[in-house]
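Anyone? Bumping this.
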Amino acid sequence: MTQSPTLSRRSTSSDLPQPRKSRQRGTDTRAGYTFLLPWLLGFIALTIGPMISSLYLSFTNYNLFEPPKWIGLDNYISLFQDERFLQSVGVTVSYVVFGTPIKLAAALAVAMLLNSKRKGQGFYRSAFYAPSLIGASVSIAIVWKAMFGDSGPVDQGLSFFGINLGGWVGNPSMTMPMFILLTVWQFGAPMVIFLAGLKQIPGELYEAASMDGAGPIRKFFNITWPMLSPVIFFNLLMETIHAFQIFNAAYIISNGEGGPAGSTLFYTLYLYLRGFSDFRMGYASAMAWLLVIVVGVITLIFFRTSKSWVHYSGDSK
Amino acid sequence: MTTIATPTASAADTQAPHYNPKSETAGAKRLKSAIFHVVALALTAVVLYPALWMIASSFKPNAEIGGSNTSLWSSNFSFDNFVTAMDGIGGVSTMTFFTNSLILALGAVVGTILSASVSAYAFARIKFPGRSVFFGMMIATLLLPFHVVIIPQYIIFNQLGLVDTYIPLLVGKFLAADAFFVFLMVQFMRNLPAELDEAARIDGAGHARIFGSIMLPLMKPALISTSIFSFIWSWNDFLGPLLYLNTPEKYPLPLALRLFVDQTQSSDYGAMIAMSVLALLPVLVFFLVFQRYIVEGVSTQGLKG
């Protein structure tokens, strides 16, 4: 309990009694903006500025060499007639919808398994976390491709049990499970966060529930789930947003093409191909803005629905 | 506190009434512990298998990778793959790629530490108009898909003639563009007692002094986590170099790896995997050395206040 001072956050500099009020306020304002300068510059030059210009570009035809030509909503309209675009949406949505819940369920299950004072807990926690650190690298994408290729270890292992799928990499209906396994393999990061959350739940609650004769299932739904709901919410939001942005593995495994049969044409990969291979930067900007809108709407929906199932019990004290 | 199954508690347990389902004999407890370890070890084997397979394959001759010999161990153990991998591609040695990766990663660490700590101090410790608005915007960028900015950024850097230099890859680090690290440091600083600033202020110290001589030394844990993560993220970054670098002499390892895959077209599997191992080596070493820091860092940043 001592290791997370982050939970008590009441004391900030704003509570300071401030002598010489007005003069202090002047220096504070100057100092505040001086200290904030690096972030402010970056925010204007690298975030807000580019966001506005990509919004503008999304209404134009632009190929980097000739000046942008205003075409109104044409990019957005042609997106919905573009079969490759629709395919990339389908691929990405099924990755997010299946990959994220499975990953989080695995993370929560393992976190609950590890949440005890047994020997070796630290070792297991580190071992399970390791894939999260390397999972997005090009190296792992190459290894994944080799493992799931023709007569790779996965194919061989399954053949041993009489399941002859062949290589997953070249099979359009097996590439999605392969990518989902890659993200589930990285369950360690949300697991570590779950574990920290589980440690905050007072043991008395479980003891009291046991006295009342509650079984493990009731304890899970009546104690663990509500007490952990802020952490579940955090993990769900972050993992969902990240899942939409998968790129490295898709690029490496499909040689930057999204194949076979477009089954690995993830949204960001198609965006990259349109922008930096075809130099249709207006079109790619429209795709980027559509992604921002979708992620924004999802975030909003998450926050709206969270009121009914996320309990911030710590705040009521 | 959450566990009731500690040795000291077991004495009390034996005196508990018999109908209490929590009372267990020592034997049952040992059995439970054994089951836990069997499950956890099996899971560890599954989770670590890809990494073990990668390392084992890097020492195998090509014919044996993905052949009928499925065991991780090969009797034909050799360093040949690494020798080939170190030769590099297109006349550029792998050492060059290593150096490039290192320059980029160290640049990222220095830039992030400098810019994020200063900005975080403004957010956490100084009261000024507009602070909460900017803080909200900073949080929003945490959730923003960065793809929305890559096209205009590319256009700008292209017009400035900075494509195929490291500047586009590093400038964001010096401008605290990784909001995650700013947020991490803000959270950390907010938990340092306010009395520290107060006392320093009474002694006549300005913000520069308070930041430099009080905050920075106390922030060591946050600075270490930031260094580790910004190093690893930069080391593994692929999209940035893919967009901005064209000359193989300037490639960092992930981009070199892709080039290697393109050129050998999987004909030299062993060397490809050996190079993948080499590219991950620093990350693995970092992890083994700093694993406590890394895992603790993740568990506290997740529990945002």
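Late reply, but here is one note on the structure posted above: Chain A is about 70% helix and 0% strand.
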